[in-house]
Amino acid sequence: MWNNYRRLSSPSFRTKVFLSSFICIGIPVILSLSLYTYLTRDAVEEQALLNAQKELSLVEENVSRILEDLMNVSNFVQIDSELNTILKSKSKDGANDFSNQTYEEYMEDSLVRKTIENITLLGEKSYVTILLENGKYYTNYAISDYDPQQIFQEDWFNQLQQLSGYQSLWIGVEPTNFSSDLHKHPYQLSVARTLRDTNQRIYGYVVVTLLETKIRQILKNQNETEKLYLIDHENKILSTKTSEEINELLPFSSLVMNQDEAKIINWQDLDYLISTKTLSFNGWGLVSIIPYKNATSNITSIFSSVFLLLSLSFLLFFLILAYLMNRITKPLIHLDRVVKQVQKGDLTVRANVTSNDEIGKFSISLNEMIERVNRMIDAVKYTQVRKRQAELAMLQAQINPHFLFNVLNSIRMKILKFGDKDSANMIQSLSTLLRWTIDTRKDVIPFQEELNLVKDYVNLMNMRQKNKVQLIIDTNESTHTILVPRFILQPLIENSIIHGLSQNEGIITLEAKMNKDKFYISVKDNGSGMSPSELALLKQSLNQPTNQKRAKKGFSSIGISNVFERLQLYYQNRLSLHIDSIEGEGTITTIEVTLEGDADVQSDAS
């Protein structure tokens, strides 16, 4: 650690040159590129939002034009005085009975039908139904496709009767009523209104219907990556590019804005540009959603090209600088290698820098120093070797386990003093494990101390690996004083971490309980588990001789075999060990021991 700190605090000459160049030139360039990226990102976002609003406005104009045509047809029927006079008169007659019609009545009916045909000539084709209270009707379609009197049975008819004045009822998407169009055009949109006399009494109804595919054709003509929806007040889809979504709730309805605007949202872990537009005359809305990357691809490509050019120029400059620095500092690097070889004890190496500058003179002086050292070493070689051996033996004798623990504790206290609690805890856990590993006086220990060893071990493993393991311990106090062989849990926990969880995140549950004279210990993980064949091989290996077990690899390794052997030696025929595993769900190892009274429990005196 000290050597690493010295290297960081005392960089080489070449490093200093590079750092100086980077500080003077690199940092301003990087700051400029970062500022450029930040500013262009905002500009790209703003331009994308403006483009989305403009494109949706164009779609809104086309959709509004079609829906306004429906409104204009219904308005015409409502406000045309001649047509209203005829309809009011017809509403007082009987139903559609053409057998006893007078010539004048025939001409009036023809005028109504011709008027309906004329007002639907312009714009998109629409179906007009004028239905009077007495059941008489006028249409611009064949009644074999649809019986107009079925309007009285529609779900929305009651809402239509509750309208007042010139209000209109916009009817959402419905299955197409006209049998001849049903196959190619499965859905329709309609607007309906009441016909009233001067006393505001309803004498008839007018319904104008448009096939939904007319709207869908407009929505299909937009960007392939863009999804466009026509929705009602409840965010139900009235029209979109595919008929499968019609009548469904807008999938991202919670993110739809109430006002007309465009913004960026995160949906299904991806960024999207969403914009909305409300139709002024009926409150329906248009929603556009497009992946943000696609919406900004053209603008981003321009900024990216400029950024790439600047980055390549900056990289080229540093490559040239690196080449020049390498040529200039190459003799210094060579001398550094020679000095390091000498530090390692290789006094046969020589510097071969032949330049006439200061570096060349230093090379000659270094070679002369090495020659002088070689002569001195030859004179005292035998004595120095013996002396070093004696010093090494004395030093080794001084470093006993207690000295090692005291040093580790001193290091822990010094680290703790600087506030690094994690490193201090790691050293404390390591010290505890080393103490129990070296101490050979106790073959068995209380189960509580074995749990503490496992906690220290998992603490160390979590500090040395990136993915943390959660250890859950569920024990009864009655189990804490039971004597068990040392290190029977650590190998099981190690197997769960390394083989079960593959050193990834996971949960290991350690449970211990007493049931009469039975002592149960279980270690469970939620790792990858084992296949039935692997589990069978593991169980088979537990009954093999020790020398064959050590040749095995996999989940068992040597650890679980060692635990099983030591438990058998201590408990003999009072022990049973079970291993259960489900592939993809985890493994559980259960130890069951029959206790023999106080012999297996720590006494109060101990």
Automatic annotation (TrEMBL):
It is an enzyme of class 2 (transferase). The chain crosses the membrane at residues 17-39, 302-324. Signal peptide: none annotated. The keyword Metal-binding does not apply. SUPFAM superfamilies: ATPase domain of HSP90 chaperone/DNA topoisomerase II/histidine kinase, HAMP domain-like. Gene3D superfamilies: HAMP domain in histidine kinase, Histidine kinase-like ATPase, C-terminal domain, PAS domain. Its EC number is 2.7.13.3. It is found in: Cell membrane. GO terms for molecular function: protein histidine kinase activity. Residues 326-378 form the HAMP domain. The keyword Lipid biosynthesis does not apply. It holds the Pfam family HATPase_c. It comes from the Bacteria. This is Sensor histidine kinase. It comes from Gracilibacillus xinjiangensis.
